[in-house]
Structure prediction request, 117 residues.
Amino acid sequence: MTSLSQRRQDTLTFLGEHSEVLTLKRRGITYDGDGVATTTWNTVTTFSGDWQPLSGGMYRDEVALRIKSDAQVITVYNLDVKADDRVYRADGTYEKVNYFLKFGDHITIRLTGIEGS
Prediction:
């Protein structure tokens, strides 16, 4: 059986060969002098990830919900990612984080397109 540290190293090797630089952004709120709120998207970090389109989309059934993902990103096991974050590509396009699956050696982030992205 392969050790966890070896599997994490294997993930790094894979990402070194099959990844692109991505930017993770999280929603923030700022208020002007009149107390009017404005949504901002603040950079959390840049990271290496393997962006993979999901042919025909992938669905996850939740209680009374059906969540469609259009792409997924494989990345390192310790990325600080949350549902509703955005993952941006170098060309400025982005998708919203639907949910993510944490494993000992990597994270799989499921994404959905956002109108206007």
In short: The chain has one helix and six strands. The first strand starts at residue 20 and ends at 31. Strands lie at 20-31, 37-62, 65-75, 86-88, 94-102, 107-113. The radius of gyration is 16 Å.
